[in-house]
Amino acid sequence: MASLHPEYGARLVLEREAGDAIAYALQVYEPETLHEGRAVLEDRFTLEWTSEPPSWAVTFLERLLAGLAKKHADDRAFPRKLTRWREPR
Fold first, then answer.
1. What confidence category does residue 23 fall into, taking pLDDT thresholds of 50, 70 and 90?
2. What is the SS3 assignment for 27?
3. Is 47 a member of any domain?
4. What is the pTM of this model?
5. How many domains does the chain have?
6. Does residue 4 lie in a domain region?
7. Residue 45 belongs to domain spanning
């Protein structure tokens, strides 16, 4: 299996956690580093990190999570897994 670490930029992986709460395990893969965290989407979403990823990656994740929360607020059909790649901005 190929590595999730990109040559440049960051690969962002969100995996839905089991349970009633809408929560995602987060991984941000940089070329040499892996940052892990957790996001909880309730009335507002919260992000917690074991190590802080670059600010541009956090900003992208915040926008992605806000879009998910808005899109699935009524149907609660949140995706189980999302993978995205972004270059530094």
1. very high
2. strand
3. yes
4. 0.88
5. 1
6. no
7. 10-86
